[in-house]
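Same chain as my last thread, 282 residues:
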Amino acid sequence: MELVYVLALMITGVAAGFASGMLGVGGCFIMVPIQFWVLTSMGVEPTLATRISFGTALAVALPTSINAAYGHRRWGAVVPRAALLLGISGLVGAFFGGVVAAHAPGNLLRIIFGLVIIAAALRMVMGPGPQAEGGGGLGGEKQVAKSDSCYLLFGLPLGFLCGLIGIGGGVIMVPVLSMAMGFGMHRAVGTSAAAIILTSFGGTISYVYSGLAVSGLPPHSVGYVNLLQWALLAGTSVPTACVGVRVAHRFSADRLRVVFTVLMIYMGLRMMGVFELLHLPI
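reply #2:
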């Protein structure tokens, strides 16, 4: 692999780890577009590159989200029961989503990827504000209790989308927890980070299994997970996740939501090829 690709993946890992800790996401919506660019630049067929990007990003999200969830738990921002139930049902959904993705056209997967995270971003910014939140911490936050069945039912479709488009689930889960379930923003971020541990695991297993008999994979691949890219991304994302956690709890919830929204919209448009279509070099 050329040095420019190595550096691009390492820098992306830093950004993804920071986003994971700060925003309660797996960082996949940052990693996938860069991985796709690297793979296609190396000559990998676009549909195959899409699936490898999804599978590898989910594999990176696993250790990154463990580190991020641990940091948020120290701040008291994780609701354990909600995270566990969302994660368990999300794991099942993510596995089947990955199986479907292994047979879907690459262009369709990239369009769905972009539309889902843009829709989640717009829902976050246009919806009514979450429960009262205080300053940059947890002082004023409320968390509305939900039944176990509510978490389980939400987890299945969320997990399916995670597996289908190769994301840990935070870009969908944070808005759902914040807007639909009444979590304060910081607890939505922390609980999402913990749930991603299970959803990303389910999706990773699915992409490994679905790609085992596939030909034309680049070197160092196990199914649709590329171990070289995984090492470069995880090696930089895991240490920076804890930095993102500290920043998150020093930001007001409104600022956190703005950062979350801008990043999601940009990466969604990027993956859909909108900037290339408009000949914009961004």
